[in-house]
Structures are given as C-alpha cells and as structure tokens.
Amino acid sequence: RKWADLDESTSKLKLVQVVFRHGARTPLSKSKQLWAHDPEWAMCPPHDTPPYPNPQPLHLVSTSGEKDPVSADNLKQMSRKLPGGCFQGELTKLGHIQAYELGSTLRRRYVTELGFLPAELQPEQVVCRTTNYDRTIKTLQGVLSGLYPNGSGGGGGGSSDIAQGSGKKGSSTGKSVVTGGSAALDTSAPKAVTAVTSS
Fold it and tell me: What phi and psi, each to the nearest 5 degrees, are found at residue 130?
C-alpha cells in the first residue's frame, strides 16, 4: 500500500529505522586545490566539547567486548592537522549542530507528537549502529543528545554503550551479541543504548 492510503485511525507504528550520514566535516583529501579558497579550518569545537548542552555520554565497546577499540584509519585521519586547527575528516561545529538538531527533530516527532518513544531513555527502545570513526561517533552522540537531552529527555543522566566492530559473525560477550550484523541489547546495563559499529 502507498503511505497516502494508510488509515491513521487503524494503523499502528511498530518500528522506526533512521539512517543518516555524519554531519558536516573537514576534507579528507590532501589536495589543497580542492579547498584553496578556504585554507583555514578553524570551525571545529575543542575535542570532546560538543557545541550543544548536555552531550549524551557514550561508552565504546567492540562487538567482541573490547572497551574503547582503536581504529587505525581514524587515528591516521585525526593525526593530520589542517591549517586553522581542525583535523582531517573531523566533524565541524556545524556538523555537531546538524546532528543535535536531527535528534531534536526525531524527539519532536516520535516522543512528543506520536508518543512512540518514551520521554525518558529506555535501552530496549533504542538500538544504534555507527562506524568506528570520530566523526560518525560524534554524529551519533549528537543525535542521541537531541533525542534524549540529559540522557533521559529532561532529567537524570544515562549512558550509551556503543559496540564497535566489523559486523561479522561474533560471539556472546555478556554485553552484546552480533551475528550477521545484527545485535542483541545489553539489558543488564541501566539506561544504556547499545549500538554496533563496523570498521
């Protein structure tokens, strides 16, 4: 059926999947010809200080259970400082704000208007997936921060567990289970959102 044909009085929303790219970022190319007219990249906030209130804390975990996994590609990009102070491929201030605004829009739609998601963060209601790059993790943090300000939508704090890895077949670690790219929630951690990332 077409969306326009749905009878809202008898239809029920059961699942929402949101797919988005990272927000605005600095260039990845080493070619200065591509950005010759804007050689000063000074529009990135201080690392770990997003330009929005109450960033959602994230705890990074690989699909194999490794805490704070390292991405060699990400380290390589983040070691290349551009003129002006930003790093190669880094999320800009605008990129952070875009992510937060997307989360706020999702909150308005699915919490306030439709009542589909709870007002406070409930881990069994939200599952996330991201790649293991600083810009994509920060984008996810911004979206979650807009969706659940203060970790719960207005009060209290929560944390998110972000699982990172290739999405390939994995084993149970007590934190998350990944098989063929899908993940089971870690319901043992209070106020935690589990996400699976691929490298």
Answer: -150, 165
From residue 117, alpha-carbon distances to 96, 121, 157, 162 in Å are: 23, 9, 17, 20
Q: Provide CB contacts within 8 A for 67, sequence distance 6+.
A: 59, 60, 61
Residue by residue, pLDDT tens for the chain (199 residues) are 455 677 878 888 888 899 999 999 998 887 766 666 766 888 999 877 889 888 877 777 777 778 778 889 999 989 998 888 899 999 999 999 999 999 999 999 999 999 999 998 887 777 787 888 999 999 999 999 999 987 654 433 334 444 443 332 222 222 222 222 233 333 333 354 555 555 5
Cβ–Cβ < 8 Å for 146, 102 = yes
Element (H, E) at 93: helix 93-107
21 CB burial (10 A radius; 0-12, 13-18, 19+): exposed
How far apart are alpha carbons 181 and 168 in whole angstroms?
6
Report in angstroms the alpha-carbon separations of 189 from 1, 10, 140: 40, 36, 19
* Closest C-alpha to 44, from 21, 25, 71, 66: 25
